[in-house]
Design goal:
Elements (H helix, E strand, L loop, with lengths): L1 H21 L3 H6 L1 H5 L4 H10 L10 H21 L6 H23 L2 H27 L14 H18 L5 H21 L2 H17 L3 H20 L1 H12 L8 H4 L3 H11 L16 H30 L5 H17 L14 H18 L8
Helix pairs in contact: 1-4, 1-7, 5-6, 5-15, 6-17, 7-8, 7-9, 8-9, 8-10, 8-16, 10-11, 10-16, 11-12, 15-16, 16-17
Length: about 375
């Protein structure tokens, strides 16, 4: 019976990963089908609740439960007292991040091993490739990379998903067959190229954080110097080649915009920031309710006030300390820490990371759940109930 539970549990979780990825394909996002596909996370949640309910009560998950309960209760109280709308996409993103983390924690506690991790990476690579192919042929193939109008509107979400797929491939995917090994690396490079073509500058900052981490901390001298040499050669080529300079600097880094117009260069963020800074003094402690500005800390401060921002930063800081302390325990811990840093950097330029929007950040919280469960697996292997 244990073997049957193992097969069912793994199949449901792996299917959930694949569906979560394809739900981010442009065609499904446009049709609205992605909203229905997100519900697939109910399957592993309910199955694990049936076979291993005690795992959800782990102390490792308590900070997540406390954070979501506190922030949602706070929003409810503020809405009742002020009459403003406090519930919106952020609240959904908080809840879905908790759900993915808890499910991933429980799954890895009972089923996790290197074989499963390899399959997950293979699914991420396949799903990322499917998204990249549709993005290229439907949006990017005929676009002008130096034009200030972006070819794909949801470039930031798509770029972060492709970056996550490529990063997990490079970090974990290690097939024994050399053809599959180098083929997977080649596909990961394609994902990065498509990510760059999307011109999501927030995602490029995330990628730079990942690259910088390994340059500064890696004990592998070949990897470190290889990255440094590639970086120097790339910068040198851009400096001496006018076409490359126009594409990379003007088209990608500046988004095809005039450097003299700071608001345009920031994709309208300066105007959004100025409006937010006018709203904050009106309700400094509890915020003005549902709002949107492309910077998570400023967005939360405007929406939920100083109290709400304190709750959020307290949780993010606690998670940062936990992941930083355990980053050297395994590749899973390291991967979770590096992805977390990259998504925090992304949050400075976007309103919803590292929690959303939607399934954009599920790979991060999946890996966080895996990392949190690794320590507990060493001390205990909770039994599965027979179905």
């Amino acid at each position: 019976m244990y073997r049957v539970n193992n097969i069912i549990g793994c199949t449901i979780f792996l299917l959930t990963i694949f569906v979560s990825l394809i739900s981010q394909m442009p065609s499904l996002l446009d049709s609205g089908a992605s909203n229905l596909l997100k519900l697939i996370w109910a399957l592993p949640f309910l199955y694990l609740l049936l076979v291993a309910p005690q795992t959800y009560l782990s102390g490792k998950l308590f900070p997540f439960y406390l954070f979501v309960f506190t922030i949602e209760s706070y929003c409810l109280i503020c809405q009742l007292l002020t009459g403003n709308t406090y519930f919106g996409p952020d609240n959904f993103n908080f809840a879905i991040s908790l759900l993915v983390t808890a499910i991933s924690y429980c799954f890895w506690m009972h089923y996790g091993d290197n074989k499963i991790l390899q399959i997950i990476c293979g699914i991420m690579l396949l799903g990322g490739l499917m998204i990249a192919i549709q993005l290229y042929f439907n949006y990017l193939s005929q676009s002008d990379i130096t034009n200030k109008t972006y070819a794909y509107g949801d470039k930031n979400s798509a770029g972060q998903i492709l970056l996550s797929c490529a990063y997990l491939t490079f970090l974990f995917f290690n097939p024994q067959n050399k053809v599959f090994y180098w083929g997977s690396r080649g596909i990961a490079v394609i994902l990065i190229i498509i990510m760059i073509m999307l011109r999501s500058r927030a995602t490029l900052v995330s990628a730079a954080i990942m690259l910088g981490y390994y340059i500064l901390t890696s004990n592998n001298k070949k990897l470190k110097w290889g990255l440094i040499i590639l970086l120097v050669l790339g910068c040198g080529y851009i400096a001496i080649n006018s076409n490359a300079s126009e594409i990379i600097v003007q088209g990608i880094l500046m988004g095809g915009r005039d450097a003299s117009d700071v608001d345009s260069l920031s994709s309208g963020r300066i105007l959004m920031f100025s409006i937010a800074l006018q709203l904050i003094p009106q309700h400094p402690w509890v915020g003005c309710g549902k709002y949107y500005v492309d910077c998570l800390p400023l967005n939360i401060l405007t929406e939920f006030g100083i109290i709400g921002l304190t709750i959020l930063l307290g949780f993010l800081t606690l998670l940062f300390i936990t992941l930083r302390k355990e980053q050297n325990l395994s590749k899973i811990h390291q991967g979770a820490y590096v992805m977390y840093l990259s998504f925090l950097a992304n949050a400075l330029f976007e309103a919803q990371p590292p929690f959303g929007p939607g399934m954009k950040c599920f790979a991060l919280w999946m890996l966080v759940g895996f990392a949190l469960s690794c320590h507990d697996r060493k001390s205990t292997k909770l039994p599965l109930n027979h179905v």
